[in-house]
Amino acid sequence: MLRPLDYILTVIAGAITLASAFFVYGGANSEIKVKINAQEKNESWEFPLRSDETLSAGGPLGETVVEIKNGRTRIISSPCENKICISMGAIDSAGHFVACLPNRVIVTIEGSPAGQKDELDAATW
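The structure assignment produced for this chain is given below.
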């Protein structure tokens, strides 16, 4: 038979569990940043992945427009001929990148969510 103190201790243990889960997993994307390199002009920008930004990165062919929105980033416009960089779509995980090689613009996501270490995937091996 449970006593009142047993209920109180159960509630306290549950609260501690929820609080520790929040501190470990609740800060996701806090350390993830988007790095944009325009190699032609040696320009580089860094933004948190959670920001809402649209900016132009200059290259030898013209301006490549990069959008960061809703925790994802993508190239939305580029002067390159085949537009492969646009068709690559949005990225949202550390280690992923989108590049407009003819215009020498590279967009990478660096870092890892709070509490997580970078993981190896099958492509690494």
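Interim note for the steering committee: The chain has a mean pLDDT of 81. The chain has two domains: 1-28, 33-110.
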